[in-house]
Amino acid sequence: MCMMYSFEDFIKEWKNDADYIEAHTSGSTGEPKCIRLSKSFVADSARRTIRYFSISAESHIHSCVAPDFIGGKMMGVRAVLAGCRLTWEIPSNRPLGAFSPHDELDLVAIVPSQMLHILDHADEMPKVRAYIIGGSPINAALRGRIERSGLNAYETYGMTETASHIALRHIVAGNEWFSTLDGISVSLDERGCLVIEYAGGERFVTNDLATLQSPYSFRIEGRYDHVIITGGKKLNPVEVERRLSSLIDSEFMVTSVPDEKWGNRVVLLMERSDDIEDYDEGVMLSKMREVLPPWQMPKEIRIVESLPRTPNGKLKR
Q1: Number of structural domains, the chain?
Q2: How far does CA 74 lie from the centroid of its chain?
Q3: What residues are paired with 169 via a beta bridge?
């Protein structure tokens, strides 16, 4: 049975005689569950990241992600396999507080909400050679801030079942494509969903709608199981969110509720913030009509205290 534990506990689990570790799925597409991953599969994943970021025995890596989640576990495995120094902290939205601007870190694992604090307090942060950001997608506003900051940061793509990320997107202006790590290629199934293929013959079919640039480069367009049927048409909420991202400063999401006329009514949820306290709904709708066709327009706008999320920060649609 999966349970909350420390990095020390996880390292003991990694070094025990079992040929697997246990990990929680995120719960973004259903109830979170505990799965078993073979240690050889996990080690292969860790070595790909070690090679990509040139982690060595002299490196210092740091996790702002708990070992309850795969992102934290993988930092522990990378440290063991590279023989490098690992430090960690209790996860919060005020990360890296134990370090000074004189400290140097080679790789730091964070989630998007933690990057907001890092950007807001850049002068207080240690020197970090590379950030990997996972747990949930990075919205356009945050991605823009990272691009302008000059930080060397990477958005990850992966899931618990793939033992963390299988691809990385360097967050620099003009780059919208994830690139797979060595030994991994991708294709699309008949639904247009991403298929992950390993050099050893393993294959993993996702529910993520994607566009391919090559067998080693792709862009995520949304989830097949999140498509909204409204008025007889299929609406991809992630596509609508992408179009609205330049109009809305707060955190937001597109979802739906059952509707007698439309089958499902498109609803825009916006998280309450100072930026939207005085927003004019009429002006907002007018701006939306400039970027959305009529059938994609939200039929309702709701201001909420916080968006529904899974324990590791993914939007729960």
Answers
A1: 3
A2: 15
A3: 155
Residues whose CB falls within 8 Å of the CB of residue 189, separated by 6 or more in sequence, listed in order = 195, 205
Task: List residues bridging with 132 in a β-sheet.
Answer: 109, 154
Record the tokens describing residue 128, joined without a space.
């970090």
CA–CA dist 94, 66 (Å, integer): 14
- Tell whether 310 is covered by a domain: no
Strands 184-188 vs 178-180: parallel, antiparallel or unpaired = unpaired
Same domain, 198 and 263: no
Cβ(151)–Cβ(25) below 8 Å? no
* Domain extent for 92: 7-182
* DSSP state letter for 225: G
Query: In 62-105, where does DSSP find H-type helix?
Result: 70-82
Paired tokens of 96: 């890296």
The CA distance from 104 to 186, in Å, is: 35
Per-residue model confidence as pLDDT tens digits over 106-146: 999 999 989 999 999 999 999 999 999 998 888 888 999 99
Residue 250 and residue 127 share a domain = no
Which are the contacts of 221, defined by CB distance < 8 A and separation ≥ 6?
A: 208, 209, 210, 211, 236, 238, 239
pLDDT band at 2 (very low <50, low <70, confident <90, very high): very low
